[in-house]
Amino acid sequence: MNPTNELFQAIVNEMTEGVIFLDAEDRIAYLNPAAERIRRVSAAKFIGRPIHDLHPARTYAAVDELLNRLKEGRAASRHRVIQAQGRYFDNTYTAVRGAAGDYRGTLLVSRDITEKKDLSEENLQLKKILARPFERSALIAESPAIKAALAMVEAVAPLDSTVLLTGESGTGKELFVERIHSLSPRRSGPLINVNCAALPEHLVESELFGHVKGAFTGAVGAHPGRFLQAQGGTLFLDEVGDLPLAAQAKLLRVLQERSVQAVGGKGETPVDTRIVAATNRDLEEDVRRGRFRADLYFRLNVIPIHIPPLRRRPEDILPLAEHFLIHFARRMSKPTPRLSAEARSHLLAYDFPGNVRQLKHAMERAVALGDGDVIEIADLPREFGGTVPEPVGEVEVGDLKSALLACEERCLIAALRRHGGRRTETARALGISRKALWEKLQRFGLSEKLP
Ligand SMILES: Nc1ncnc2c1ncn2[C@@H]1O[C@H](COP(=O)(O)OP(=O)(O)OP(=O)(O)O)[C@@H](O)[C@H]1O
């Protein structure tokens, strides 16, 4: 054998690229070991057979077209990316011509580009993510009403004044507090959040103002209290309307004196914290009914900012829905689905008693359960289909769990009505903690609906 031939043979045998040579009649004249592995064929059986024998019938026309282009000199080489054995290959077809330009055949080289392709896909994903930056606490504000509230927040954030945010549950009050804090000179200090409705009544004072070791049974260690934890920062008193009256008096004193005394402690510690309070209750009404101290109300209501319910600002519904779809799709590593025209009109027509939180949960559910790239009406919770179901009424007995839940909901409603919506008394009558009551009201979306 010609030594040059031997040398080429050795090189081609060792190559990791698959090499196939097709003669002028499109028959396989040569196939190297790498091509045997890639195509899962043996050279011994395939030499002399038409190239089509390596391909599924549906690709014949495309392969013929490609080879014809090369034969006719319309192209010197062509690329095709194929998938084989779960990997991607870039196939380069190059026409081989004699000295006179006569077509002798085609050289087909297959390169494994799986890693490259994976990387470029990942790169594309990352570019998309970068092009659409998603802040964790992005605040969507399309409606004039929410833009006005945001403008107010931006104006008062740099001041140290107390802000009272009002609005139904789930309207985004917490996001507004974050915005106030992050735009204030206290932004590098802590933002401490206290949910006044979730605090057990007997622990309200020690939670807020701290306690010394051994101040009461269970006080094994000292606790600085939320006020001191928020030193130099912002203290967010969420659901402030749910503070028991005794705690309201103590809070008022702290706000007046600007100092706290820990439960069981003697000395006073000066407090340097900005107060932002929020409530979904009608505090003026609570003041009239003697449930909330008027003097505390005036102390907190220095700068009132109202966040309207979602049903009063329909311009926000679809932008919020899309924002949540992107967020959850990314979190669940799924492609971002879009809303069908019908789903959009249902969302726009719905009155959202649970506000943005309810919309957010619905979008999370749709992304989690959806298997397509379009969210249809069927992918939305049942209540979005029409009017909100009345919570009091016949128990729809489907399974035991839902029957028990419906029963629990009715008990809660009855107890709340009997106690005029007063959480502490309701919790006591039901034999559960205020925290447990608060959680149940959230779960059933009842915190808004009742007095
Ligand atoms: N404008 C908005 N843009 C983006 N997300 C929002 C917006 N408004 C509310 N959300 C989201 O909706 C959810 C509910 O909002 P948030 O917890 O701030 O409501 P809230 O008014 O504080 O409710 P509650 O009174 O029950 O504490 C949150 O996950 C929040 O991130």
From TrEMBL:
Alphabetical keyword list: ATP-binding, DNA-binding, Nucleotide-binding, Transcription, Transcription regulation
Annotated InterPro entries: AAA+_ATPase (IPR003593), AAA_lid_NorR (IPR058031), Homeodomain-like_sf (IPR009057), HTH_Fis (IPR002197), P-loop_NTPase (IPR027417), PAS (IPR000014), PAS-like_dom_sf (IPR035965), PAS_4 (IPR013656)
Gene3D superfamilies (UniProt xref): 1.10.8.60, Homeodomain-like, P-loop containing nucleotide triphosphate hydrolases, PAS domain
GO molecular function terms listed in the Swiss-Prot or TrEMBL record: ATP binding; sequence-specific DNA binding
Gene Ontology BP annotations: regulation of DNA-templated transcription
Positions of the Sigma-54 factor interaction domain: 139-368
PAS domain: residues covered: 4-74
Protein name (record): PAS domain S-box protein
Organism: Trichloromonas acetexigens
